[in-house]
Specification:
Layout (H helix, E strand, L loop, with lengths): L7 H10 L5 E2 L5 E5 L2 E8 L5 E7 L9 H14 L4 E6 L5 E10 L6 H23 L3
Antiparallel strand pairs: 1-2, 2-3, 3-4, 4-6, 5-6
């Protein structure tokens, strides 16, 4: 397989090959829904070499839930490799659990590697969302 630079086009090609349904938002970012979990794929970094896969857990919490969400995320991060879990408070006061899998692909990547990274980011992001849903 050829090693190529990371790009939104490559991500879209991988998702198409998997028959995944996805969208491109007004900023040019790619996202989609898997098991009611919204997942975004960002190409970032000074040379567009970093793949950031961000999962947004489906359940919405309140600011009163923040202490137990911190405990949940700390336990998740202690026990799991992916994704890194954190609490995000929106301007409107809604609180979400988010997960991120970040990979530096400075030296390029193959189609199969991106496919594996997306599969991992999606599946572990959905797992995080499922566990957040089960919180009391």
């Amino acid at each position: 397989m050829d090693i190529v630079p990371l790009s939104n086009e490559l991500i879209a090609s991988v998702l198409q090959s998997r028959d995944d349904h996805f969208f491109t938002d007004s900023d040019g970012d790619i996202g989609g829904w898997w098991n009611d979990t919204q997942v975004y794929f960002f190409v970032t970094g000074p040379e567009n070499e970093i793949l950031n896969i961000r999962a947004i857990a489906r359940r919405i919490f309140t600011v009163d839930d923040i202490p137990r969400l911190y405990e949940f995320c700390n336990a998740w991060n202690h026990d799991k490799f992916w994704p890194k879990a954190y609490v995000h408070v929106r301007d409107d006061g809604k609180v979400r659990v988010m997960g991120e899998t970040v990979t530096d692909l400075e030296h390029g990547v193959t189609f199969n590697q991106v496919s594996q990274l997306l599969r991992c980011g999606i599946s572990t992001g959905c797992s995080l969302s499922d566990q957040a849903d089960k919180l009391p």
